[in-house]
Specification:
This protein is α+β, with helices and mostly antiparallel strands and 683 residues long.
Length: 683
Amino acid sequence: MTENPIQIDETRNRAVLVGLSANSLSREDNASDATLEELADLVETAGGECVGTILQHRDSPEARTFIGEGKVAETKELVEAMEADLVVFDNELSPSQQRVLTEDIGVQVIDRAGLILDIFAQRARTREGRLQVELAQYKYLLPRLTGMWGHLVRQTASGGKSPIGTRGPGETQLETDRRHIRRKIAKLTEDLEEVRRIRAVQRDRREKNEVPVVAIVGYTNAGKSTLLNALTGAAIPARNRLFDTLDTTTRTLEISDTCTVLISDTVGFIRKLPHHLVEAFKATLEELTFADLILHVIDASNPEWREQAEVVERLIRQLGAEATPRIDVFNKSDIYVGDIRPHGEDIVSISALTGEGLDQLLAKIGDRLDTGFHRLTLALPYDKAGILDMLYQEAKVESVEAGMRVAINLAGIDKKDISRGCIIAEPGSMFQTDKITVELQLTPDSPYRVKNYSFLHFYTGTQEAVCKVRFLDRSSLKPGEKAYAQLVFKNESIVARNLDRFIVRFFSPMTTVGGGVILDVQPRRIKLNSPQEIERLDRLHSTPVNRIYQMIEDAGCSLIKEAELVSASGLSAKAVHAAIQELQQVGVTVRIQGGFAARKVLDDLEEKAAVILKKHHEAQSLMEGMSLSEFRGKLFTVSAKTNDVVLNYLKDKGKLRIVGSSVSLPSFQADYSPEQASLQAEL
């Protein structure tokens, strides 16, 4: 048993086409000269060639052979005469009829559905497309297994009554394959449900952003891909053959300054499209039901365009998209042979190949979807907060972020009322982060306690995100308690500044349980249950003087500047300046070339430098000093432009001696013997 139920040899197959026109069949199920001509095109698309056709007329199909014993014999004669190796029926055959016809004619017999499935299998390129085709193939194959394994069907379990030599192991090959295919169908259905779930998420995102969606549908080879290329420059293959495009392609199309849409090219429709295929492709085709506008592309040059359009309309109704607004796009008008082109309110004639009529098509799409919204990016000062209230009432505000630009869709507001170029936060004060250190407090009436690694909804300003809680000195927090914690954001980062306030809510039911203040928007790695870390956070959360001192100490030897402290602290410039003045007066910070360092940090650095140089002098007593580059690498944990500034500071204090590229302790002298001293002098 192979993975693909219908296999056409790589050599060019010679096919005889057979159709039945019966009074008892519906118009859609009957064959005709036109449908046989279309079937010949399908065979050509599949890689074969038509070498003969037979159209049978009778009152009703014959149960065993569908077309009657006489027509079967005639077909067999034509197959032998034309050396054909394939017979394709334009009508749908039952599994038993297909088996009987294959046995009677002596070559492989398939129906239109099997041929279309084979073409789809050749054309599928994406994982989604291959999944959908494979599911349809297995559903088509399942009822047809009996004929493939007829020689094994009569096996019975050991001990049963059956002819000698035919007793099997207890299960026929047919039953084994049926079970295998059912498992495959279940797995493919599950995979396609995941595809539909992903599409639903993407659709929700589009709806949230209010991006209109336009779906291109139509009969196969009507020019859908050519139209998408002409409108968007998508450059997808567009050849003059059936089902040339199978996998959906989506591109952005700018209709006007105020209207941008997503436009998708869908799989083409055809008469007698296998129901297994329609069912399998629902993950793709259901996009039609969620589209804001359908472009029904019709091949105006085809004399049977009315019948083809009806096929598409019928399938649109089958998919439940009949209520979606629609524009009928009559393509190939450059080779239209009629006197009067189709026209009307929701009709446009175009030539996707030459570009004729595309402007009128864009205008009609704009009339349907353009809301007149203008998208602007604004920055508002604090004293213009009233404008933001007006925007919420009169426009769609897409996002508001403190210290960053605001993207909105603006309608009905005069641009002269909005000034640009203002700011609402100090430059550099806002940080994008996926982890923050906070003081979190639960409300006394909170119905829940929060445990380590719980997930919460986090709100600050207009932002909402999901975060995971990690307490720094405990395993849980009870109602009314407060503690230091780190919040790690699960799927997206936030934009915030130090000392911003926030609230947190539980998931189900959505209940506000507490809130707090952001202490550090760019936290370093924190050791849990560390008294030193808790003491550090206490200083960050106390007075402005203590907060500024801790930030200077955290900066180490980077010599943080006053402007940087203003941006990062969340305090006003006046409060930061006053804190620095106080710290300078008590002598716990040092100003070095416009930046600040904690005296404790410098004292520790001075002690570390003495230890490094002392060890070097003891080990290399004849060297004048240590290489300056080696000394930097051992003294500083972080490479920074300010490192040499700090070294010069220690040198000016008399703690180091730097000569050229060598550094040593000021009191160090190389310990030469008299002979070494004489040689040194000579050198």
